[in-house]
Every structure is written in structure tokens, then in C-alpha cells.
Write a structure and sequence with these properties.
Layout lengths: L1 E6 L4 E8 L2 E9 L11 H23 L8 E7 L3 H18 L3 E5 H7 L15 E6 L4 E8 L2 E7 L5 H11 L7 H8 L22 H17 L3 H32 L3 E5 L6 H13 L3 E3 L11 H12 L17
Parallel strand pairs: 1-4, 4-5, 6-9, 9-10
Antiparallel strand pairs: 1-2, 2-3, 6-7, 7-8
Bound molecules: adenosine-5'-triphosphate (ATP) and fe (iii) ion (FE).
Length: 335
């Protein structure tokens, strides 16, 4: 089974070819244009997708060493995401499937982030059902009970900002360029996580809230900079380590609660923020500390990619869960 995966939900145009669950190629064109605006500009994103999609798919096929006529099916991101961006991938996938007379597979982007754990890799072990997935990305923060490939139940989610936003907005306060998450991670590695204690947001049950944290970081920084204009510059490592430590603390508290509530001790993390070195390390430590079995994705499958779309498509293909030509992009879809 050869599946072509196409991802265009936000600002990355990506294509991947999967052979029987194994990756043959995984190509991502990241749009740099948004950096100078400090966030993704939807109109620019869809225009860049239109420019990138053909070359990116060509590159994925050529690196995989197959021709388009060998493909078994086309998988694409139907949503959630930016409408204009989703439309480019959706229309392209539909036309290609029509032209090649092969099935079309619609994929939920958030399910795909989780299913990235099922890509065949020698040194990577896959989770067994049921497991808990913590999806932490630029637009989502969810705890998901995963019973089967497409049986997923959200048991906790953010009431306001996503974790990725919390990282990016904190970074912005510190004057770091967008997206600031990876930079906070980089500085945090050299800082003291207990240097500046920030209050952990209090939310009942398994839900999250990150907007209050962002505000308290803003007020703290403003106050310090007033007293010492070089405060950020002199303390960037400690500030980043403290912010990251607080965020990880929140995530771990909720995970512990979710484990207690469900009795499930297998935890997988997914989404862009699962690239964070602090989160990866904390989760690995939880294996001995709490006797959990934890799964962290390979780096290239954390942020948006098409390999995860292709693997989701692979499982849909096996169960013959095809999309019809009437399928439309959806900016918001439930798990
Ligand atoms: P969604 O998947 O919810 O639609 P998205 O696709 O925009 O959102 P992803 O590409 O999955 O999000 O993740 C991007 C986010 O991950 C950004 O907010 C980015 O700052 C964050 N991120 C990436 N690497 C790291 C890191 N090492 N530490 C912290 N955050 C990171
Ligand atoms: Fe994503």
C-alpha cells in the first residue's frame, strides 16, 4: 500500500509517501513569510500553499522513488485549521484522486498528530490501546483517551490559550521572534527553573487555562524592566527555564489526574510542543517515578508534517473508510 499524505492546515505545506506504514519520504516547506508579522497571516499562508504544493508533492514522490501511478490512495488534512490553507490541500487531493482514479482519505489533523506514534520505525515502540494522548500544539491542548485508531475521546482541554500559544506569547513578551517556543526551550536548557516562581493556573478537573499565566508573566517582566532595563537580557535563561517549568508543571498535574481517573498508565505526547526537551525529559522520568509507560514522538513528527497524515490515511485505507468527492474542508472538527 502506497499512501500519499498531504498537509496544509496552517503555515507548512507538506507531503509524504508511506509504504505499508513505513516512511519513504517526508517533505515540509515551512513558510518564512510569517516571521516578520509575529504570527501566521491566513491570506499569505494560503497563497504560499498554492505556490508550494506542486513542488512539495513532486519532491515527496521523487525522494520516495515512485511515480504517482503507483499510489494506492491520497490522504489529506480536512481540518481543523485555517480555511484558506485547508482548501488548497483539499482541492488538490480531490483533483489528484480523480485524475489517478484512486481513493481519497480525509484525515483529522489532531488525530493524525496522535497517530504519528504508529509510523513504523525500528527503534520506536508503539503505544497499545487504550492509552492517553496529551496533544500539545499551536492551536490545541487536549488530553485524549485513545481506544482505537479512530476512537478518540477528549477528556480535558484548554479553556483559552493552547500550550504552544503560551510558549509563543511568553517569547513575544521577551522580545523573541515568532515562533518563540523552540527558543524558550533553548534558553531554558541553561537556566534555573526555580529562579522566578510563576503562579500555576487553577482549573477544575482535566481542563487547562494558560491565558492567566501569560498575563502574570507580562506584569512580572514589565515591573522588572522598569527597575532594570537590562533585566530580560541578563536573565533570559532563568526566565525561560522558569516559564517552561511552570508550563510543564501544569501539564504533569493534569496528566497525573487523568491517569488516576482512567486507570490508564500509557501516555503518549503529540503535537508541536512535544518537541520541547523539558517535556520529553519529564515524561521519560515519569516512567520510573510513577511507573508509567511513556511515548515521545520522533522530532520530525512533532510539528506539522504529512507523514502523520499518511499514517492516518493508511489505517483508513485498511478499513476501507474512504471519503467521497463531496468532502469539504472544515476549519473546526471534533475528534
Ligand atoms: P494545531 O496542530 O493545534 O492545529 P499547529 O499545527 O499550528 O496547531 P504545531 O505545528 O503542531 O501547531 O506546533 C507548533 C507549536 O509548537 C508552536 O506554538 C511552537 O512554538 C511550538 N513548539 C515547537 N517546538 C517547541 C519546543 N521545542 N518547545 C516549545 N514549543 C515548541
Ligand atoms: Fe498541528
Amino acid at each position: 500500500i502506497f499512501i500519499l499524505g498531504i498537509e496544509s492546515s496552517c503555515d507548512d505545506t507538506a507531503a509524504a509517501v508511506l509504504h505499508n506504514g513505513r516512511i519513504l519520504s517526508n517533505v515540509v516547506a515551512t513558510q518564512e513569510i510569517h516571521q516578520k508579522y509575529g504570527g501566521v497571516v491566513p491570506e499569505l499562508a494560503s497563497r504560499a500553499h498554492q505556490q508550494n504544493i506542486v513542488p512539495v508533492i513532486h519532491e515527496a514522490l521523487s525522494r520516495a522513488g515512485i511515480s504517482k501511478n503507483e499510489l494506492s490512495a491520497i490522504a489529506f488534512t480536512r481540518g481543523p485549521g485555517l480555511m484558506g490553507s485547508l482548501l488548497v490541500g483539499t482541492s488538490f487531493a480531490k483533483s489528484l484522486s480523480l485524475g489517478l482514479k484512486i481513493p481519497l482519505l480525509d484525515v483529522n489533523h489532531m488525530q493524525a498528530h496522535i497517530l504519528a506514534h504508529f509510523i513504523e520505525e525500528k527503534e520506536f515502540e508503539k503505544p497499545h490501546f487504550p492509552f492517553l494522548a496529551l496533544t500539545i500544539s499551536g492551536g490545541h491542548t487536549q488530553i485524549v483517551k485513545v481506544t482505537n485508531y479512530f476512537e478518540m475521546e477528549v477528556i480535558g482541554e484548554t479553556l483559552d490559550d493552547a500550550v504552544g500559544e503560551a510558549f509563543d506569547k511568553s517569547a513575544k513578551i521577551l522580545g523573541l521572534p515568532y515562533p518563540g517556543g523552540p527558543l524558550v526551550d533553548k534558553y531554558a536548557q541553561k537556566g534555573d527553573p526555580k529562579a522566578f516562581p510563576f503562579p500555576k493556573p487553577k482549573v477544575e478537573g482535566l481542563n487547562f487555562s494558560f491565558s492567566g499565566l501569560k498575563t502574570s508573566i507580562l506584569y512580572f517582566i514589565q515591573k522588572q524592566v522598569k527597575e532594570d532595563p537590562k533585566f530580560i537580557e541578563d536573565n533570559i535563561e532563568d526566565i525561560c527555564a522558569s516559564i517552561q517549568h511552570t508550563i510543564i508543571g501544569v501539564l504533569m498535574d493534569k496528566l497525573k489526574k487523568a491517569v488516576k481517573q482512567t486507570g490508564i498508565k500509557q501516555i503518549a505526547i503529540a503535537g508541536g510542543v512535544s518537541a520541547n526537551s523539558g517535556i520529553r525529559q519529564t515524561l521519560k522520568e515519569a516512567e520510573t517515578k510513577y511507573h508509567w509507560k511513556t511515548f515521545v514522538p520522533k522530532f520530525e513528527y512533532t510539528t506539522d508534517n504529512a507523514a502523520m497524515i499518511a499514517i492516518a490515511g493508511h489505517y483508513k485505507y485498511i478499513s476501507e473508510d474512504f471519503a467521497d468527492m463531496g468532502v469539504t474542508a472544515k476549519a473546526r472538527i471534533k475528534m
